[in-house]
Design a protein that fits this description.
Layout: H1 13-30, H2 33-36, H3 39-53, H4 62-86, H5 92-106, H6 116-130, H7 133-142, H8 145-168, H9 177-200, H10 204-251, E1 258-268, E2 275-282, E3 287-295, E4 298-302
Antiparallel strand pairs: 1-2, 2-3, 3-4
Helix pairs in contact: 1-3, 1-9, 1-10, 3-9, 4-5, 4-8, 5-7, 6-8, 9-10
Length: 348
Amino acid sequence: MKVEYFSITRLQNLEHYRFAKNVLTLCRQANIAKLNLVLDPLEKAIAQEDLALNPPISDEMTPTIISFDSERIAAYQSIRWRIRSYTIDSDGKLREAAKKVEEIMHRYGNLNRMNYDKRTAAIENFLTDIKESSIQSLVRKLSVESALKRLEEANTAFADSFLKRLNSDYRRGNNIKPHRAETDRCLAAVTLRMQSIDDLEPSATITTLISLYNRLVSNRRVLLARRTAFGDAATQKRREEIEKLLAPKLAELVREEVASAIFAGRTIGKGKARHYLVTIIAANGDEREEWCRVEQDELVFVPEEQLPKPKKKKKPVHNVILPATPSASSPSAGGHDAGAEGSIGGGL
C-alpha cells in the first residue's frame, strides 16, 4: 500500500502541530517494533513545537526588575522630601546645607519620567556628585547617609538584574520555523519507515496504519481545498463590488476615441488611498492600462511613480512528505494561525 504525499507546509501552525500529533498517536497505537524506533525523535520535536506555540508573555525576571526600580525611586524620593523639609527648617545651617544638596538634585530633573537606562545613569551621576568631599559634610549634617546607601544598593541591584535578563531572552521561543522544520524532518522519517516496512514485511497492522494515515492526509487536503475555495470566492466577491463601484465612472470615459474602459482586476492601497488598474480600449482596438483613484466621485489618473508602494510578501515554499526522501521543510512564520494559505486577497 502506498503512503500518500502531503504538502504539510500549507498547514497553519496549530494545524501542523495537531497533524504531527495525530500521526504520532496512530503510530503508537499500531505498536510496530521497527516503526517505534523512529517515534521518539518525532515525539521530542512535537513537544518543542508545542512549547514554541505557547511562549511566555513576559520574562520571569521582569517582576524582580520592576521591584528594584520601585525601590530606587522610593529611596530617591525619600531623600528628596527629607532635603526639602530641611530647606524650611529653623536651623539656618541646615537650611543652607539642604539648599546646596537640592541644587545637585535639580541637575537630574524628574526621574519618574525617565526610561530605565536614563534613570540608572542619572542616579549614578547623582551619587557621584554627592560623594564629593565638599558635599560629604553637608550629607552628614542632614543625616541622609542611610537613605543614600539604600538608593545606591537598589540602583546597583537593578543594573545587575537588567543585564541578567538579557541572558534569558524569552522572546526566542516565538520563532516557530526551526521547530516546524524539525517536526517535518521526523515526519518524513516516519513515513519513509512506514513505506519500507510495508514493502519488505507487509502485514495487516502496517496496512491498517497506512490506510489511517492516508485518511488523515485526505481530511487535511479537504481542509486546504475548502480554504482555497473560500479565498477564491471572497476575491470574486470583492472584484464584483469594485466593478459595481467603478461602472458608472468608467462609462464616463467612453467617447469617440475610447471604445470601452474596464477594471483590470488589480488594486494598490487601502481606503481612500486605494488605486485601481483600468484597461482602456481605443476605438481602433489598441489597449493601454492606467492607474486611477476616486476623488470626489470622479476617476483621477495617477502616474505609476506616484502610486503607494505595496508591501513585499515572502513567497511560500510548498514541501511534501516524501516516503522515499526525508528532508526538512521551510515552514511559514507567524502566530498560531500562520501558514502559506494565510492570504486570500488575490490583489484586490
